[in-house]
From TrEMBL:
Subcellular location: Membrane
Segments crossing the lipid bilayer: 183-206
Membrane topology: Single-pass membrane protein
Molecular function terms from GO: calcium ion binding
One cellular component term from this protein's GO annotations in UniProt: plasma membrane
Protein name per Swiss-Prot or TrEMBL: Cadherin domain-containing protein
Organism of this sequence: Phaethon lepturus
Length: 253
């Protein structure tokens, strides 16, 4: 707006944003996300700008924002207080763009969550960035990390001019992903299934062993009965003869 005074003072706002997935800086018009976790796709935002003069003039435009599932965000760790970094974030962005030779977008500036109560006392600040090449294609995170390592000394030298003190710029390496509830449930179910399978196999083996034992006992018992029957046939009479056995022999003949 070429006007001066209140007529040139602009205020930006989002029109019809009931989901609160995005927000806008009313002074600069910068749009940023609030909560788009798990959402992928293109969102169309209607932005209104109004001057602050008498009989405010307004105009609107539609902005498309694409959210993808890429992980090409790199965190640069600076040994500076967050409030100092925030005051100089535009210069930090300029230095990174100059040394990386890519377009740099500041995604977030934050510090250790455990130190939130002492916001100005922590000397470690994280600057999350994502970069795009000259054709506006997102640069893979590994390429950004490699270039940052190559330009580390140059970046630190330029940052020292801004912060007027020694500056270290490191790359935050992402820790191993914590186990998700789904993964934990899968592991627990797998363990339970394995235990159930082992228990079933033990039961089958025990049942087979018990059946075999019963069969052996049955055979021993039958053998004993047969032996006892033969012994009864061979019992001698009062005179010590084997008449009963002879009788059985004649019957068989």
């Amino acid at each position: 707006d070429p006007d001066s005074g209140d007529n040139g003072l602009l205020r930006y706002s989002l029109v019809n944003n009931p989901t609160n997935e995005f927000d806008i800086d009313e002074n600069t018009g910068q749009i940023f996300t609030v909560s788009v976790a798990g959402k992928v796709g293109t969102f169309y935002l209607e932005v209104q700008v109004a001057d602050q003069g008498t009989g405010r003039l307004t105009t609107r435009a539609t902005v498309s924002v694409t959210v993808d599932s890429s992980f090409n965000v790199v965190a640069v760790v600076l040994n500076q207080k967050i409030n100092v970094v925030e005051r100089n974030i535009a210069e930090v962005k300029r230095i990174l763009e100059d040394k990386l030779a890519w377009h740099v977008y500041i995604v977030d500036v934050y510090f250790n969550e455990f130190e939130r109560k002492a916001r100005s006392s922590t000397d470690v600040t994280y600057v999350k960035i994502t970069t795009f090449d000259v054709v506006n294609k997102e640069v893979p995170a590994e390429d950004v990390k490699r270039k940052l390592r190559e330009q580390k000394s140059n970046v630190e030298a330029e940052l020292e001019k801004i912060f007027s003190t020694s500056v270290t710029a490191a790359i935050e390496e992402a820790p191993a992903d914590a186990a998700t509830p789904e993964l934990i449930a899968t592991i627990v179910l797998s363990v339970l299934l394995a235990c159930t399978l082992v228990a079933f196999l033990v039961y089958v083996l025990f049942a087979m062993k018990r059946t075999r034992k019963h069969e052996q006992q049955y055979l021993v018992k039958k053998q004993a009965e047969i032996t006892e029957g033969i012994d009864n046939l061979c019992i001698a009479d009062k005179n010590g003869s084997l008449k009963s056995f002879e009788k059985l022999e004649r019957m068989n003949n």
